[in-house]
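RETRY 2/3 - previous attempt timed out on the joint model. Re-submitting the same 560-residue input unchanged.
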Amino acid sequence: MKRLSLRGWILFLFFTTLFSYGQKKEHFYNVDKEVTVKGSIKEIKMEPLYKNTSPFLIVILEEKKTKNTFNVEISPVWFFDHDFHQGESLVIRGSLYQSEDSAQNIIAREVQFSGQILLLRDKHGFPNWRGGKGQTRRKWRRKKDFS
Amino acid sequence: MKKKALFLFFFLPLIGIVLLFFVLSTVNRSYIKTKVEDLVKEQLRSTAEILKANISHYLSEDYKADEIFELYSGEENIYYMALLDDKKNILGWRSQFEGYLPLSRQTIGEKESWVIDSPVGKIYNFFSSFTAPDNKNYHIYLGYSLVNLEEMMAYSQRNFIILFSVIAGIGIVFFLGIYQIQARYIKKEKESEKEKREKERFREISAFTSGIAHEIKNPLNSLSLLLELLQKRSSRELREDVSQGRTEVQKISRIIDLFSAALKPMNLQKEKFVLKDLIEDIFESLRREGFSESVDLQYSGDKEVIINADKALMSQVFLNLLRNSLEATEKGAVRVQVKEYRKKVTITITDSGRGMSDEEKKRIFEPFYSNKKQGMGVGLYLTKKIIEAHQGRISFDSHRGQGTSFSIQIKGE
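RETRY 2/3 succeeded.
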């Protein structure tokens, strides 16, 4: 994963807060549009996605079968402590939405990689990093098929 | 009543009361919870209606959905809100949690309000339609935090648990206390009943054996007289044998006397006397018997200790104990110490004799138990009986090779 220096992070956070943008119409975890996509990482990015929050880890995923590309929204960068690499295989379960520029986006709920599954949101799309009562820990489980 | 039955007799009502309290309290809390929930939902519904009216007003003034939601960004209790057109397409939305808007087209519209669980607590969902002044139909979707309600319920639950624990704890202590008192009373009653039966049995045996002793003593006396006559009239060769026979008959008679004395109920003839005088008399008697040649008899203690007791029986007590001490002591002293404290007199007889074995310590007060060749084994048994008849106590402390100490506690004057 690309790494930034501390100064870089501070500047990054400052600008993301300044230029944070509003929530787009379809940009929410829509439980009616859940998909599972298998692919490999083409690119890794960090972008501010929600107003007044820290930047998110975005993975550009190329689907194996169709070669379609998806922008996968993982979680705030601070919540994710695994190093992704270009070409690494992932299985993503999440909610699909199309942005105004017709790009295919996925808000990830579960990410399967390296024999593990990282749980990012609950079944309604509630983000695990915001879970109350000390539940903001990363939730991992052993690799199984997505249930 | 058996112990188990007694326990259940006290324990079951306790369980019943605790259960009744638990059930009534739970029903009551459940009722209050439902009522409070209804009240809160009603309140939220009213708030939502006001919100709906305000949004309708903003729409009529050409505000965009995002701009309207921006006005409500300070509302901490509204977790998320969304505005939908008449075809339920989302026009705009806002959420306190990144991307979290639990809106499903499959379920919206079925109910006006429903509650969902989330990691931050229960969320009250409200979905309703309205018509704006421009006659366009809209839908509004809101998610209200029920954290305050949950906190209130948790507080109530916590208080209930504390109260329930305290009441159950007090109840258990109270009922266990009553159970203990009752169990002790029943135990004492049983002991008293047993003692009564024992006494009755002892009385019957005493009467029976006294009768037998009396019947044996008469022929024995006759036999003794006959042997005395025979001794006088018989030849010199036979005289010694007859004398021996007479001694044996007298021995049997003495055994029967001791046996009768042991079984006879105590009839105390109490009188006040100076203890020291009695003990000095016994010392003198023992010296006459030749006991005190190599062993010194010593008295120490308060001079004028007066007790109210049966003098003859107390004399027998001290005679028995001192004789035993003297017999057990080859050389040294036998000491009698008398102390009076708060109208309680303690007499301690200490010897420097051979001491007692463990077996002797266990059986010393048993009737007809003796480690002496000529002993009948009734001396200490009678001693204990006499002391107990005076409401007193007798105890001893003995160490092998170091001596024995008997201690008698008896009421003073």
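Chain A touches chain B at residues 22-23, 25-32, 49-50, 53, 56, 73, 76, 107, 121-122, 124-128, 130-133, 135 (CB under 8 Å). Closing ticket.
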